[in-house]
Design a protein that fits this description.
The chain is α+β, with helices and mostly antiparallel strands. It has 3 helices and 8 strands; from the N terminus they run E-E-E-E-H-E-H-E-E-E-H.
């Protein structure tokens, strides 16, 4: 009689969804949120990746030399996670000195025993406006006001010049009439 032993592995996959985070140009840091249950086992691993423009590792825990070599150079020294994440379940990633190229999707993957938690965060990088919209509107209105005043002054001076020319012509005619009548 042959006895068959089979092992069953159950893989649980949980996708929490997609969150959006906005960061303004010039910010010191931004937190990409990702949470799981507290009191994680010691063998838990966390990967932060970007699927676009090409798949790349942003941060990996545990950060072995193999993982460090795989980390994208643009993120070296700019990422960190909560050191106490095994106890708290907070596997959020802090990205220091965010820049325009950081805009896009990030995927947080937590491997805990046979469970896998995957969460997506979309980072929106917002550039500062040179002028607030109200200042731009005010500037346009001021320019229009200056143009209207200049046009009004130009019209006024043209009328004054015409009146002066007519006055001079009338004085010359009167002077000629006086001269002619005195002869």
């Amino acid at each position: 009689m042959i006895q068959t032993v089979s092992a069953h592995f159950v893989l649980y996959f949980l996708s929490v969804g997609q969150q959006e985070v906005e960061v303004t140009e010039g910010s010191d840091s931004v937190v990409l949120p990702c949470r799981t249950s507290a009191d994680l086992p010691k063998g838990t691993s966390v990967e932060w990746t970007r699927p676009e423009p090409r798949s790349m590792f942003i941060y990996v825990f545990p950060n072995t030399s193999k993982h460090f070599a795989q980390q994208n150079r643009d993120y070296c020294g700019r990422t960190e996670m909560n050191k106490d994440f095994l106890r708290t379940g907070d596997v959020s990633l802090t990205l220091m000195y965010p820049r325009d190229g950081d805009d896009g999707r990030y995927v947080c993957t937590v491997h805990r025993d046979q469970d896998v938690l995957r969460d997506t965060v979309v980072l929106k990088y917002v550039k500062k406006e040179l002028f607030p919209s109200w200042a731009s509107t005010l500037l346009v209105l001021l320019v229009l006001l200056v143009l209207i005043v200049c046009a009004g002054l130009l019209y006024h001076f043209q009328v004054q010049i015409k009146c002066s020319e007519v006055r001079n012509q009338n004085q010359q005619r009167l002077s000629a009439l006086w001269t002619f009548s005195s002869i």
